[in-house]
């Protein structure tokens, strides 16, 4: 009986993962080919966010959490070795949000599973897509999964390297 309970629990977790993937994918399916700032008018992005998190290493690796929210705001949480300093709040354009939504779909993000290599000093990187209480996270510690490289670079460009986050003395 215990074995049946474990199997049912595993099946429930698997079905929840598929459901989360389907719901998050459904949000971005209609944005393909959207190249104008008006593309977001069709979507309610309240409660939507995409997070890029870079973990710490034993050296001086930049460690931070950058969140792009559905309202086009950017939250930046500097955890360690961020130079020059960044402001905690910034913004992106509607075009960038369209590009981000398109890339989430194109990368098959919700079907991706990251890899964790057994390396002690490899910082963990995570990308999380959230829609309300639903979320999907992919994490890895060495090489960005091939299908997520463009998404990773886009998130890094608009969080860690976002010019609206740079302190005025560094612009």
* Overall form: globular
Distance between the termini: 64 Å
* CATH fold-level topology: Mago nashi protein
Structural classification = alpha+beta
Strand content: 15-25%
Radius of gyration (CA) equals 17 Å
CATH class: Alpha Beta
Helix content: 25-40%
Oligomer: single chain
Largest sheet data: 6 strands, antiparallel
Gist?
The chain is 30% helix and 23% strand.
Structural overview:
This protein starts with a helix and ends in a 13-residue tail after the last helix. A six-stranded antiparallel β-sheet has the order 4-3-2-1-5-6. It contains three helices and six strands. Helix content is 30%, strand content 23%. Helix 1 crosses helix 2 (94-106). It has helices at residues 2-29, 94-106, 149-158; strands at 48-54, 63-69, 73-80, 89-91, 125-131, 134-140. The longest helix has 28 residues, at 2-29. The chain is an alpha+beta fold and 171 residues long. It has a single domain (2-170), classed as Mago nashi protein, CATH 3.30.1560. A hairpin with a 2-residue loop joins strand 5 and strand 6 (134-140).
Any descriptors?
6 strands, 171 residues, 3 helices, six-stranded antiparallel sheet, alpha+beta, Mago nashi protein, disordered N terminus, single chain
Which secondary structure elements does this structure contain, and how are they paired or packed?
Blueprint: H1 2-29, E1 48-54, E2 63-69, E3 73-80, E4 89-91, H2 94-106, E5 125-131, E6 134-140, H3 149-158
């Amino acid at each position: 009986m215990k074995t049946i309970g474990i199997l049912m629990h595993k099946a429930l977790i698997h079905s929840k993962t598929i459901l989360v993937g389907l719901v998050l994918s459904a949000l971005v399916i209609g944005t393909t080919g959207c190249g104008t700032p008006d593309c977001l008018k069709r979507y309610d992005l309240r409660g939507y966010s995409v997070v890029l998190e870079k973990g710490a290493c034993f050296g001086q690796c930049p460690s931070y959490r950058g969140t792009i929210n559905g309202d086009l705001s950017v939250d930046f949480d500097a955890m360690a070795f961020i130079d020059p300093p960044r402001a905690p709040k910034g913004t992106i354009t509607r075009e960038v949000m369209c590009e981000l939504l398109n890339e989430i779909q194109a990368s098959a993000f919700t079907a991706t599973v990251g890899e964790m290599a057994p390396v002690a000093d490899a910082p963990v990187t995570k990308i999380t897509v959230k829609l309300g209480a639903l979320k999907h996270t992919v994490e890895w510690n060495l090489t960005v999964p091939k299908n997520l490289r463009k998404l990773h670079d886009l998130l890094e460009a608009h969080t860690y390297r976002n010019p609206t986050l740079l302190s005025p003395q560094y612009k």
